[in-house]
# Entry
Amino acid sequence: MTDTIKVTDAGMSIVTNRLKDSGTTPHYVHWGIGTTAAANNNTAMESAGAHESRTAGTMTQQTTNVSNDTYQVVGTITCATGAKAITEAGLFDASSSGNMFLRGTFSAINVSVSDSIEFTIKAAFDQA
# Structure
């Protein structure tokens, strides 16, 4: 499977709201086992981890091409029950419900109970 990452339609709204100094901040990370490629119109995980809650990640600005052009969130999720193959991650503006800022799909990362994955999610802004 090809890695696919998309800032969602709702994510674009979050960006413009933040530019006008209102709205919410996407920093809640979640995982799932969905395999359909990420798309602009995603509003939720395809198959979210039912036993693991979203985790509040640490937000920073990073440099990809020019100073502070990248929004980064780092968050860790720990497997609560049963082995699973994690194939998607998303970034949300609330600990439950809320708006999906972005979603990514990737090759399976197998986890068992008590295993953790630290996600580093970056949204780089490009002037191209």
User: Anything to note?
Assistant: Residues 4-124 form one domain. The mean pLDDT is 94. Helices lie at 9-19. The longest helix spans residues 9-19.
